[in-house]
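Lecture 7 notes: from sequence to structure.
We start with the chain below.
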Amino acid sequence: MPRHAAGWHPGWSLTGHYRLNGGAEASFDVAGAPSTGAPAVIDLPVAGPLEVWFRVASPGCENYDSNYGTNFDFTVHATGTAVPPTIVFQEGWVEYVVGTPRAGQPLVVDFDLDRLPECRLLYNGAPTWEVAMHYRFDNGPVTDVSVTAVSGYSRRGVPVTINPPVGARSVTMWFENWDRGYCRRWDSNLNANYGFSLQP
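Predicted structure tokens for the same chain:
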């Protein structure tokens, strides 16, 4: 990270950028000039998906921390609303649950696309690949949902919400990555699929 001093004042700046609900881009100072070094506080007026990325710059130099151009994704919840439990599929083959998944209540699945890094064919610069989650409750029918969204000429991962029916005892899920070049890869716990219990 470039940090060129100019007298007593830093000659570099670190700026955070964000976009809420796909709206206009906004920014805030993080460090360097003209930041005071205090933690940044952002007023988010509505709930919804939030994209965040960072830019560091000094004379003749500029770099980004933007999750390889796809930005970092978060979900903003309205004040006073309960945050639904989340099943996280993290890079490095790590899975964990935040909260308690329950039947009859929404459940969020957050899948890191770096778990399936292949099958990334482009056509005229646009992504022609997709990652889908297949899931079912108990031994019921299989449902498919995309865990990505297109942003400009890139595709990024997004958390998805599923709704376990009342009385369901478990949810099973697995993930499929494919592109128009017929590349196909699976994240399925070595064909055993991922199973999670649902509390009543």
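Points to note: The chain has a mean pLDDT of 88. The chain has two domains: 10-75, 83-197.
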